[in-house]
Each structure stands twice: as structure tokens, then as C-alpha cells.
Glycine--tRNA ligase
Amino acid sequence: IISGTTSRVHWSGDRIAGPFMRLSLLLLSTSRLSLLSAHSKPVFGVWPRLFASSQSQQKQSRFSKKIAHKISDYLRVMADPAIEAQLAPLRAGVKEYGDLIRDLKSKGAPKIEIDKAVVELKARKRKLEETEIALAPKEASFDRLKLEDLLKRRFFYDQSFAIYGGVTGLYDFGPMGCALKQNMLSEWRKHFILEEGMLEVDCSSLTPEPVLKASGHVDRFADWMVKDTKNGECFRADHLIKNTAEKMMADPKVVPETKEQLTDVLAQIEGYDDKDMHEVITRFNMKSPITGNDLTEPLAFNLMFPTQIGPTGDFKAFLRPETAQGIFVNFKRLLEFNQGRLPFAAAQIGLGFRNEISPRQGLIRVREFTMCEIEHFVDPSDKSFPKFAKVAGHKLNLFSACNQMDGQPAQEKTIGEAVDAGIVANETLGYYMARCHQFLMKVGVDPLRTRFRQHLSNEMAHYAQDCWDAEILTSYGWIECVGNADRACYDLQQHYKATNVKLVAEKKLNEPRVVNFVTAAPNMAVIGKEYKKEAKKIQSALEQLTEAEVEDLEKQIQTGMYKLKLADGEVNLKKEMINVKRGEKRVHVEEITPSVIEPSYGIGRIMYSVLEHAFRQRDGDEQRSYLSIAPLVAPIKCSILPIFANEKLSPIIEAVREKMREHDLSYKIDDSAGSIGRRYARTDEIGIPFGVTVDFESEQQPWTVTVRHAETMEQIRVKVEEVGSIVHSMVSGRMEWEEAKQKYPIYESKNEEK
């Protein structure tokens, strides 16, 4: 992975000239990165293959097509014997325990033995990661403080309610951040909803408790929390135990018996309740990691924000932790809208809320966030995708479960190869992974700092078929930004169980068939007399019963009562209220509960990754930092800068503005005091990709202006009549800067540094 400023690159003997003198390679590996610095000499013979020698390639964009960025080229650098000598035994150690876990599972070993082996596997993987990081040259590190200063100073975003001291985990987006976010959302809608013909919905953020009880969120989103007894600082109990135990196990002063006990704790911690956690904290005398103070007993803490609907406070609800449930509960209406046909996809863009115990890392972990989620409903027996052939050749960096278990780095494969080999479960999941990668590239994520990591079996929910996270490498490490999961039929089945409303689709049979049926026919006269207003609800609930449930009903009413569950309670049915009927019928369709393929996007995390990957510093002037944001999503597409304050230039400036408006291009006029060079620097800093300068020559007929490319600082001269269409073409990607330079005369500016 290349990090550093862009601009000139040419080969000269065995040295790299120009701003890439401090270029570094970031190598994708097990779960972190290795960094190799190339200060002067070519690294392991790779440079000649990567960079062309012609002078025409000077000042190229980092992502220019002129430079062949092949992930495999960078991964081959790991063949260096000096590095492999250090990593090989560590990789072998990871593989040893990966093989052991496979063997234990194949032999049906007790879960506790497998869990212990998993703990050791994770410890060995961590050691491998630490060794890789130790190989990184210090000068290759990313200066996050400079980026954060820029983002705060130019108000991309800042902590909410800052004048009141701020609230952790909540952020307000300023003009630039808001525009960047909206541009990303607009592009997401075009890339998925419009191009794929999805059904878009916008559901309420307030979700009744029964909905989230059925989905498992009420129970699954509850964590145990401990507090510092003196200052009240909160910690998630299982994380505190895990981190403290790992620290103790790495301490040579801790006796082997204690380390063995801690290994047992780590293997079983996922099943611990509050009493178990308190016992562990007490037995090992665990303290606050910040102050060393004592800790309280674990307290239950739900990660969802509770609220009430209505004035009485009796109707419990939550702010939704995800947008998906709104789609699931509307499945029946969406299926009707799609004329009862599968497959189809529904999408939603909206806010999610999670009351994180200790939010941190800026936009990476927050309490309120924007999500873009897709629920693709498909026949469980046929997960092929009609358009899969279009993306089958698309290459992805796949970090499969096998790679992780064997201590091997991610591997580049086409998604077609991965599906054919069974690495990715099916075509539909593979299609969305490829489309996900294409979207991330569009909005400006570095392709060489992106990978898809497969969930290990102990990470996936019991109902999931396959899960791949799109992870982006930032200064915080590998960050999960998109989840791509095959959730099977779980969600629709859970809501059916809770409501007795069938959430199924009909599948046409190739040939009609005769089937036996058994139904529970209600005696409405008797039921109506006893239950009155509830009679219709009872009739509806009986119609929803499966054949197995009707058989169970028949057995129970022969000897007593049958308790029928309704949406808001249950009723007792007697024998005289029900007639069980049996028979045969010819059917042309069968009912199926669709499987769901779910891509889920965290826009805030993607946005931060884009900003970090776009951060640059001018060669020779590290104080002059700027953002090289992809023009497609840049908050402002173009700046308009008069070279000096003069009324004669006003008509020309107005003409340029009119051309920008004609093409729906956002622009910013900077006619403030100061040299043109300083004004260029101000607009570069906030990620404006193009600048239009009205200068001394502009007054000559026909009016002309210069168009400046912020990243390379190069300029071309164009007619005012054409400036709107030229900038629009470069923003939309229909024309590259290199093409523009060939088509229009280059203007040599002497004002950049002034």
C-alpha cells in the first residue's frame, strides 16, 4: 500500500526521485500491517515493476491509471528473507493451533477444550501482529493529530454541545462534513437503489419493545458494566476482565497456575453472568485500568436507548439500534408491491442509536450514526444472481477464515473464483461484496487499504450462513465499515413467531401436486359469544397455525384447554370452539420463508476512512496539509478565485458562476485579501479538487480562465463558455485530469508559493 504525497515519480538508477522519497509500503497481513520503508534503494526489486520511467508521468495522481497498482505486487514484498525469518515461526504457531481447533471440532471435543484452544490461537495471532508492527519504521506513522486539527478547525465535524463541555459519542457535522456526508449518501443511493432497482423505505426510528424482543435485541444488547468506586468511570465488564487477564498472562511474574486459571476464564467468559464476572474480578483482584481503584459489582446495561410512546409511559419502546427491523416487519407489503415475486431487495438510509458504554475513536464508535442497509430476499434453495457474471472477474482482497486460522495474509482473488471454490457461500453474497468494493473505491477509499474478512465460526450468529466484513485500514487499525451477511431466514421467522403473521412468499411448482392438509376451523358462534371483540383475532391466529401446531391443538383440546397465543396475550379454547378438518388438495405453489442477504454500511466510519486516506502534506512543506477527496463526493467541487480585487473582473466571475450553476456544481468564491497562493492553500485544505482562477488574461476576448487541479497544482487555460462542462466531466469521472491536460493548453503558474 502506498502512503505519502502524490506528484512526480520517475526511475533514476536505483533511487526514487520526487515527493516519493519517503514512500512506504504497507503490507496487508494477518490482521494488521507490516511497513517497509523505501528511502532510496529499490525494495526487493519491486520498484522497477511498479513505476514507469517516462517524464510524462510526473505529477500524476496517486490513483492514476498510469501506475499499475496490483495488490499482488505489494504482497510479494513479504518474500524478503529477513522479514520471513522473524514471521515464519509465528505464522507456524498460529497454524498449529488453527489445525488443533479443526481437529477438536472434527472429533466432537467438548466445547471448553475448543474454547481454550481458541484463546491460545488469539494470543498467538496477537503476537504475530505485534511483531509485524514492530517492523514498521517510526517515520512511516500517520500523524492523526494534524488531520484531527484540520477537521476541527475547518468544521468538518466537532463534538456535540461543545460549549456545554461536549457529550462523548455525539458529533455535529459542519458545512463541509455535512456536504461530504450527503454526497456519499447520494452516491450510495445511485450505486445501489437506482442501479439495482431496489425498493426504498423510510421507517420510524422509534421501535416498540415487542419488535426488538422478537429480533433478539432486548436480550442480546444487554451488557454487564462495572464502575470505578471513587470517580464513577464505567467499563464493560467482559472487556475489562479480558484485557486484565491478557495483561496478567503476559506478565512473567504471574505463576503458571494463575495463568492456567485465566486461560479457563477467557475460554468461558462469553457465557458468564454478573455473578461469574464479579467472582473473577474479586478472585484476581482486578482494578480500574485507569486509576487502580476498586470496582463495583457488575450492573446490567442495555445498549439501546429506552423511551416511552404516549403520555402514560406504559408503551415501552427504544430508539432503533439498526434500520433492518423496519424492513422485516414490512416484508409482506413490500412483497405485494413487487407483485409477489422473489428475489427483490429493499433498502433504507437512516439513523441508528447505541448507548455505548465508552465511545471512543472519533467517528469510529459513536452513539448516533447513519446507516445504509439492504435486505435482499431470495429463495433459500436458489441464491444465484442474474448479474453475477458482470462482477465475476472483479478482484477482492479476501482474508478468509482459513487464512486467519493458518496465520496467512489476505489473498487476492476474483469473486468468481471465491464463489466457485466455496470460500464465499453464494453468488448473491458475492455480488454484493463486489458492488461494495466498487462503491468504496468510488468515494475515495484507498483500494490497497481495503480487505474483506470472513467471520470465524465462533463469531457468527447460530443462524448465519456466511459473513464478510469490508475492513478499511486506518491509523486505528483495521476498522469494520461494512457487514455483508447471509442471515438465512432468522428474522422473518422470529417476527412470525411473535405475531402469528406469516412472512412468506409463494414459489410456483414445476408440476402441481396433491398434499394432505389439516386445519383448525373456528366455531365463530361459540367463540364470539365468549370472547366477543377478540373473536376475529382468534380466527386470524388459528389461520396462521402450522399443521404441526394444529395436531398439537387437537391433542390438547381432547383432554382440556388449548392456550392460543395472540399478539397481545393468549386465550383458552375449548373443544366445542374448534373443528379440526383433514383432507387433500391440489397445490400449484408452495410457501417458502425467504433467506436474507444483508449488506450494512456504517457511513460515519467510511467517511472517516475517506478523510484519513485523503490527507496529504505538500512535499518540502509539511505544514501545508490538504485533503485530496475524490471529486465525486467532494463537499465543494470548485473554487472561484479572482487574481486581484477589480470591478473589471466582476462580469467574468459572474459568468463563471452561471456556468457552475448550469451544471449543478457546488462552488466557493474566495476574493478575500491575501496572495493567490495562500488562497489556493486554503481551498486545498478543505478538499476542493478544482479551482477556477480569473486572472490578467481573462479580460481578453473570448473570456478565458485557468482550471487548477489541487492535487498536482497543475493548471490549464479554458474558455469561460466551456469551464462548467469541463469541471463537470472531471467531477463525474467522464474525463481524467491527464486527458484534460492533453486537450487544453497548460498554464504555468508562478503564484503557488506566494
